[in-house]
């Protein structure tokens, strides 16, 4: 039987409620979060600040509707590299990291590809330019396979926190308040 995941930060029930609340709506004020999780404003603010300092809360952003800003084509691109060296990977990642069209870049295994990119552009003409003028010009790229997203069946940024609940400390064992 596999071991249960650890909860290295010793998050308690209030911490988890704060994280769930922020994942659902990052625009809430501290007072609104405090009200929803059952804390007063000051302890809630301290907990949020601590979660940010620990890196649990990585950032707070606004999600835009791509179609509303003219970005109608999402493409998943599998890329094969000529060499599997740290230098080649670092070079590729550095270059694609500078392309605003690239939303995600994963070094992968189990496929014929080395990387999967998630790219968003206004349409097919812009994708063709992106592919031919940027991706295929990167040193070491020897193969590209594009898959076009027809529909997003699931689209969330919320991480599943339910598994952490098993390791949550009970009342009275707060780490800060």
Describe the fold and architecture.
The protein has 177 residues and is an alpha+beta fold. It has two domains: 1-63, Orthogonal Bundle (Arc Repressor Mutant, subunit A); 66-148, Alpha-Beta Plaits (2-Layer Sandwich). Helix content is 31%, strand content 17%. The chain has five helices and four strands. A four-stranded antiparallel beta sheet has the order 2-3-1-4. A hairpin with a 7-residue loop joins strand 2 (102-107) and strand 3. It is elongated. It starts with 12 loop residues before the first helix and ends in a 29-residue tail after the last strand. 14% of the residues are buried.
Quick recap:
31% of the residues lie in helices and 17% in strands. It has 177 residues and is an alpha+beta fold. Helix 2 (30-37) packs across helix 3 (41-53).
| CATH architectural designation of the largest domain | 2-Layer Sandwich
Radius of gyration: 21 Å
Major β-sheet annotation: 4 strands, antiparallel
Mean pLDDT: 91
Task: Using brief descriptors, characterize the structure shown.
alpha+beta; Alpha-Beta Plaits; 177 residues; 17% strand; Arc Repressor Mutant, subunit A; 4-stranded antiparallel beta sheet
List the helices and strands and how they pair.
Elements: H1 13-24, H2 30-37, H3 41-53, E1 73-81, H4 86-96, E2 102-107, E3 115-121, H5 124-133, E4 141-148
Antiparallel strand pairs: 1-3, 1-4, 2-3
Helix pairs in contact: 1-2, 2-3
């Amino acid at each position: 039987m596999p071991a249960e995941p650890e909860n290295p930060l010793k998050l308690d029930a209030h911490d988890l409620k704060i994280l769930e609340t922020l994942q659902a709506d990052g625009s809430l004020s501290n007072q609104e979060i405090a009200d929803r999780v059952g804390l007063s404003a000051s302890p809630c603010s301290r907990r949020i600040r601590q979660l940010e300092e620990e890196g649990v809360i990585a950032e707070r952003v606004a999600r835009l509707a791509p179609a509303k800003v003219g970005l109608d084509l999402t493409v998943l691109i599998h890329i094969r590299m000529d060499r599997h060296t740290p230098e080649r990977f670092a070079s590729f990642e550095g270059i694609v990291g500078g392309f605003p069209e690239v939303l995600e870049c994963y070094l992968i295994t189990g496929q014929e590809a080395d990387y999967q990119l998630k790219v968003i552009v206004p349409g097919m003409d812009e994708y063709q330019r992106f592919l031919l003028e940027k991706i295929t010009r990167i040193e070491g790229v020897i193969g590209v396979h594009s898959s076009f997203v027809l529909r997003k069946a699931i689209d969330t940024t919320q991480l599943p926190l339910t598994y952490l609940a098993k390791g949550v400390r009970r009342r009275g064992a707060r780490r800060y308040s």
